[in-house]
Structures are given as C-alpha cells and as structure tokens.
Design a protein that fits this description.
Elements lengths: L1 E5 L5 H10 L3 E5 L10 E4 L4 H10 L2 H10 L4 E4 L1 H6 E4 L10 E6 L10 E5 L9 E5 L4 E5 L4 E6 L2 E7 L2 E4 L10 H10 L1
Parallel strand pairs: 1-2, 1-3, 3-4, 4-12, 5-6
Antiparallel strand pairs: 6-9, 7-8, 10-11, 11-12
C-alpha cells in the first residue's frame, strides 16, 4: 500500500515518518502524476493559502479533486482541513471544497497560543490522543452528511465523510500513530 503526502509546503516529512510506523510506504506528491498508484493522500498542515496557491500553480488542486471524485481517500490536517472545506470564513483562497464544513482559519489564535489537549476519538477509543493545535482552524459547522468523530469543548476537531477525513490538529507531531492507522484502514 502507498499513501501520498502532499509535499509542497508544511510538515509533510512528519507524516511520512508516521506512515512508516504503521508499516505503509509514504510517497511525496508534488505533481499531478505523483497521484498515480497511491491508495490515499494526506494533505499536511502548513500555511493554507500557500498550499492552495502552489496547488493551483502545479495543477494539483484539480488533479486531487478528480482523484477524490474517483474515490481516493484524503486526510487533511490543520491547513489540509482548510483546503478540504467548502467554506473558509473571510477567505477566497484556492481550496478543494471536498468536505461540507465551514472553517475559520487560525481561530485559536497566533503561534504563541498553540496548545495540546487530550481528545477522545470515538472510533479509535480510549485512551484519548494528545492533540496538538498550532494556529489551528476551528470547524464552525458541518453538513448533514459529515460525521463528527471527535470534539474539543463541543467544537468538532475530527470529521469524516466516506473516505474524506479532516482534523484541525496535528496527529503527526506525537508518538501516537492511531489516527494515521485509522486513515490507512479507510484506504484499504
């Protein structure tokens, strides 16, 4: 099994390392042709407007949308979740618009306001994971067909629709690989 990691900007290297821990080959995706032969795609955290702009420049956004329509599972973390959203508050940045969620960028505050919190993910079960929030977005609302898998203070932090998964936190920045294992299971 091969899982692609969008490697234009952001913390893609940490996702590649995490995929190794679950016994899956991770491959860097930088061009549309890199999407061929993968079983899933991770869109990492980073700077969402930069990722969107580079995604347009390298023709990746349209290619990723096409693969999603064909059923390719996609997991967006932090900035990746923003790219997957249909609506980003006060922004017209390039995005995929794959998941019916409304996202507010950097809603938890600036870099200095970053934090960690225990989060229980329903399908993964106890113990809770340590979720790392860095200039994290907030999912303000979800569409009727989007399932909330985890919350923090009643705010969705992990959502799913079919093979689409979005997290407002960074699961790749801990030693706990259960969220990545959950995504890999979606890809099988």
């Amino acid at each position: 099994m091969k899982i692609g990691v969008l490697a234009l900007q952001g913390d893609f290297a940490e996702h590649l390392k995490m995929l190794e821990t679950v016994g899956v080959e991770g491959v860097r995706v930088r061009l549309p042709e890199d999407l061929e032969g993968i079983n899933g795609l991770i869109i990492p955290g980073g700077e969402s407007t930069t990722l969107g702009t580079l995604g347009v420049r390298y023709r990746l956004l349209d290619a990723i949308k096409g693969k999603a329509e064909e059923g390719l599972p996609i997991f967006g973390t932090c900035a990746g979740a923003i790219l997957m959203a249909t609506t980003v508050v006060d922004s017209d940045q390039p995005r995929l618009g794959l998941l019916d969620i409304v996202v507010n960028r950097n809603a938890y505050g600036r870099q200095k306001d970053s934090f960690e919190a225990p989060v229980m993910i329903r399908p993964i079960g106890p113990p809770p994971i340590t979720a790392v929030f860095i200039r994290a977005p907030v999912i303000q609302s979800v569409g009727a067909d989007v399932e909330v898998l985890a919350t923090l203070d009643d705010q969705p932090v992990l959502v799913k629709k079919g093979g689409l998964l979005a997290a407002t936190f960074h699961p790749e920045l801990t030693d706990d690989n259960r969220v990545h294992r959950f995504f890999v299971d979606l890809c099988q």
